[in-house]
Amino acid sequence: xxxxxxxxxxxxxxxxxxxxxxxxxxxxxxxxxxxxxxxxxxxxxxxxxxxxxxxxxxxxxxxxxxxxxxxxxxxxxxxxxxxxxxxxxxxxxxxxxxxxxxxxxxxxxxxxxxxxxxxxxxxxxxxxx
Length: 129
Fold this sequence. Notes:
Layout: E1 2-6, E2 10-14, E3 20-24, H1 29-45, E4 54-58, E5 63-66, E6 71-72, H2 78-89, E7 93-94, E8 103-106, E9 111-114, E10 121-122
Antiparallel strand pairs: 1-2, 2-3, 3-5, 4-5, 6-8, 7-10, 8-9
């Protein structure tokens, strides 16, 4: 596996099969893990096409495995970046860490995607499940 990110909050590795392995750690790791799992399941239920799909979750080890949403984006117009995070609102979720570091580019379909939902908020509470 190739390490993609190693911070105080998480370690992210890319498996040879293309899947993304994220291990949560640090302050409130259990809460951030639970939030990311809940939000990714919610977005999948809503049919959001530009976020990773949750494949596995391991609450005991605070680890998730997701599909790959492409490579990180180094340069993106501020207006386009805002537009992506605003598009997420249409699916009932506010990202709450709307930074370019959470934008990827999926070459297979030429689509910008969003990642890292550990601080996200489901705003459409009546449909939360």
